[in-house]
Structures are given as structure tokens and as C-alpha cells.
Inverse folding.
């Protein structure tokens, strides 16, 4: 079932006419390690998790399988140590304090932690993320962090405004040709996201089924 769902999502990605390479992140929050193992057996390598404690248990259970773990949930200060130690990507960096902590706490024996600035593209009070007009001021500060690498941006658009929001994100990316990663698009709107330059799509329910 999960293997079939993965193939279906990969077909959807492949049908979109785009120039960029697109990587599928299987969003596995609330799903057991046995479900992830089915996806791994079908060739999936990138997994996105929102809840740190739950993610750490899965990382331990599934270790040794050459997986790439993405933290995509909100990052509070008390979570940065474990994220810096256990993940390859952090998608939801929304302030310099968090970036600085991730940098200071990244173990020296690991490659740089790849980070994305979460952009609150629709300026929604209920969502975290930097405002669009703050981006230019923030980016230069990342040059001071030797242990993390700013790769691009992540957004979660308002569902009734996805197309416009993705187009806005595409324009932001164009201003930063040295950045190469745009994480946007979920089960309902991945095609629109890819058309607007998404390089990561984050798909949960269309792979693992609806969350309980």
C-alpha cells in the first residue's frame, strides 16, 4: 500500500514540466517506524518529522539505512541541541537565535547542517516564519555560522492562496541565485509548487494515509 502510494506521488512529480530536480520528502509524523520501513523498502530515503521526541526514537530504530532526516516542525530553543546532533536538514529556522544555537551545537564530526529560512509568506498570525521584508537583513548573518549552511527557504502557504504564495516565493528565490533549495508543496498542491520552483515537496497523507 505505502509502496504503491509512493509510486503514485513520484508519478505526479514526474508529470510536472520543470527544469529543477525535485526531491520527495515523506512526512512521517505520528506514523510508526514500521510504516517508514515500508517506504524505505520501496526506495524512499528522505523523511520529514515535526515532533522531536518521536523523531529521535525513529532515527534510532531505523539507523544504518542511509536515511536523510529533515526537521520540519517549529524549533524552540530547548530542541536545538538534538536537532543539531541528529538531522541533516532543518526547514523551520525563523530567527537568528535559533540559527546561532544550531551552529554552536552542531557536532564537529558531522557535515554542516543544511538550514532553510521559514518564510511566513502570507503574513498569517497563526504561523511562524520571517516576514518577507525581513529576509534581506537576515541572510548576511548566516556567513558568521561555520557549522550550518543556509540553502534556501521553506513556506507553508494559506490553503486558499497557494498559487500566489508559491509565485511570491519563486520571486524571492530569483533574488538569491547563490541559494538552491525551495521547500514547498504538500499532497494537495505539489504540482503548483513544482511549477514555481520547489526542489523539495513534503508529502505525508498521500503516502502514509490520513493521520489519526
Amino acid at each position: 500500500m505505502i509502496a504503491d502510494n509512493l509510486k503514485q506521488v513520484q508519478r505526479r512529480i514526474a508529470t510536472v514540466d520543470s527544469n529543477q530536480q525535485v526531491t520527495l520528502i515523506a512526512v512521517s509524523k505520528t506514523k510508526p517506524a514500521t510504516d517508514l520501513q515500508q517506504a524505505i523498502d520501496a526506495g524512499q530515503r528522505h523523511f520529514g518529522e515535526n515532533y522531536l521526541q518521536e523523531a529521535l526514537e525513529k532515527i534510532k530504530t531505523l539507523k544504518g539505512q542511509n536515511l536523510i532526516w529533515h526537521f520540519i516542525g517549529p524549533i524552540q530553543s530547548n530542541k536545538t541541541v538534538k536537532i543539531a546532533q541528529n538531522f541533516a536538514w532543518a526547514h523551520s529556522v525563523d530567527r537568528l537565535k535559533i540559527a546561532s544555537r544550531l551552529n554552536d551545537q552542531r557536532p564537529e564530526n558531522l557535515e554542516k547542517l543544511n538550514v532553510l529560512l521559514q518564510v511566513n509568506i502570507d503574513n498569517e498570525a497563526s504561523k511562524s516564519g520571517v516576514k518577507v521584508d525581513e529576509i534581506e537583513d537576515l541572510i548576511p548573518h548566516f556567513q558568521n555560522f561555520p557549522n550550518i549552511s543556509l540553502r534556501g527557504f521553506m513556506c507553508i502557504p494559506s490553503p486558499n492562496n497557494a498559487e500566489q504564495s508559491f509565485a511570491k516565493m519563486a520571486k524571492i528565490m530569483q533574488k538569491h541565485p547563490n541559494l538552491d533549495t525551495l521547500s514547498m508543496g504538500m499532497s494537495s498542491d505539489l504540482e503548483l509548487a513544482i511549477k514555481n520552483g520547489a526542489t523539495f515537496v513534503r508529502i505525508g497523507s498521500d503516502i502514509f494515509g490520513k493521520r489519526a
